[in-house]
Amino acid sequence: MLIYIVEDDDNIRELEAFAMKNSGYDTRCFAGSKEFCQTIAKAVPDLILLDIMLPGDDGLTILKKLRDDPVTENIPVIIISAKTTELDRVKGLDLGADDYLCKPFGVMELVSRVKARLRGKSRNNEYRYAEILLNEESRKVFISGRQTELTYKEFELLKTLIKSPGKAFARDYLIDTIWGQGSTGRTLDVHIRTLRAKLGEYGRYIKTVRNVGYKLDKDE
Hints:
alpha/beta; Rossmann fold; Arc Repressor Mutant, subunit A; five-stranded parallel sheet; single chain; four-stranded antiparallel sheet
């Protein structure tokens, strides 16, 4: 899982990154809002650790933008701030933060809160890959924030791929799982073509794995 850390204090940012990496999470670190906003427009994380007092847009402004965007509205956000009054905490939570941790903080508590939020996220039935967002419960798919209409089988095909990005699925497995026995490889190939087209520029992420099948992967 990928965690973004937005913190302008070098020492605190390094501490948070060390704690996350030591707990098995991938991390990307940002000292301010500009680079963070540029990066999240290209790749969406599983959770964000967000400071309030930042150069550029402050953390609360960033939080509001995240909650106003359908691609990022459900990303768990934990505010970590030196602003420790009850009013500060209430304001952050009311704007949509999932948790609020005051500085100074304990590393074990930070890790525990991150794990709790990620457990909750897994129950939302949402899956993200780059600019592709799939909600299993509502059966909606968004590409760069815009809803894309998929057929039932296209949705099931994308759902299978996006749940395990990077994994190569055998053609027979996809056919049997989504269409049932008796269906042909031509049916799968036609749906792959139409799904790629509907995903637009991100359709290239659906890769053909020679002599195996298909996978969802950004790597060439």
